[in-house]
Amino acid sequence: MTKMESLEQVQSMGRERLYPSLTNPNWLVLRKRRELFRRWLEGLPELNLSVLDIGGRIQPYRPLMAGQERQYVAVDLRVTPLVDVVANAERLPLASESFDLVLCTQMLEYVPHPQQAILEIHRVLKPRGVLLLSVPTASLKDTDEDRWRFLPAGIRQLLSAFSEIELVAEGGSIAGLFRTVNVCLQLFARYRALRTVLSHTITPVLNLVGAGMEGLARSDNEAFAVNYSVLARK
Ligand SMILES: C[S@@+](CC[C@H](N)C(=O)[O-])C[C@H]1O[C@@H](n2cnc3c(N)ncnc32)[C@H](O)[C@@H]1O
User: 104: buried, middle or exposed (CB in 10 Å: 19+, 13-18, 0-12)?
Assistant: First the structure.
């Protein structure tokens, strides 16, 4: 059985996802996700939001809410000090039309029936409520429960019950390539010491070169975008 993570551990993981260090192989996509979520949250006019975070074990994006939330409910299969309701996203034990905002980041790939989880999110959202979603398109298998990867047409199909959808790649193909090289270097480095050396030498260089090249190329090529963020309105 997995040992329960402490508050300090999950808060530290959350900080690293929201403000990744340059030594993080996922730096390119994580910083893009932060920019998108910040913009979308700032664009929500309402105060006193009732928020549901599904897969809310770590809550990296909660600090971006800056007091907009009246209520913040975290649902996850795994218990941590931040989880309020231990439940499956496919069967939420929550009332219909009870949340203004649902956050669901990097969770859908683990759910056996992603369409069912999206239907549940749609059900618990109030009319005109908003879902902020992020999903992987190309990434290494995380655990044996990791089941799916998502492309734009599939994401739109899953979200077809929503009235408005803004789908944005978390970086284009150049960022995707540099992110992938970074995570593969970590994968193939057999020894922890080598991984540490890589993450303090080559990884920051690849992160910065990837960001620089993406800025200079100004390309709209997203064929190898590795993660997507979505704002969907009910
Ligand atoms: C990769 S973590 C993402 C955590 C956080 N949302 C983030 O963006 O960093 C995926 C989370 O989804 C949870 N999870 C996986 N399957 C789930 C399900 N069917 N229902 C609820 N939570 C689930 C896992 O326990 C885990 O905490």
Answer: buried
Cβ(89) – ligand 1 distance below 6 Å: yes
Residue range(s) defining the domain that contains residue 87: 7-173+222-233
Atom 13, ligand 1: which residue's CA is nearest? 55
* Number of domains making up the chain: 1
CA of 71 to the centre of ligand 1 (A): 20
Beta strand 49-54 pairing with 69-76: parallel
Summarize pLDDT for 174-226 with one digit per residue, the tens: 999 999 999 999 999 999 999 999 999 999 999 999 999 999 998 999 999 99
Q: What is the CATH number of the domain that holds 169?
A: 3.40.50.150
Name which of 82, 61, 85, 103 is nearest 8 in CA terms: 82
Question: What's the pLDDT tens digit per position in 9-47?
Answer: 999 999 999 999 999 999 999 999 999 999 999 998 778
Residue 161 lies in a domain: yes
Domain presence at residue 111: yes
Mean residue pLDDT of the chain comes to 96
Q: Is the pLDDT of residue 1 over 90?
A: no
- Is-contact 26 16, C-beta < 8 A? no
**What is the model's pTM?**
0.96
211 within domain boundaries: no
| Residue in 77, 105, 140 to alter for ligand 1 test, most ligand atoms within 8 A of Cβ | 77
The answer to whether position 157 is within a domain reads yes
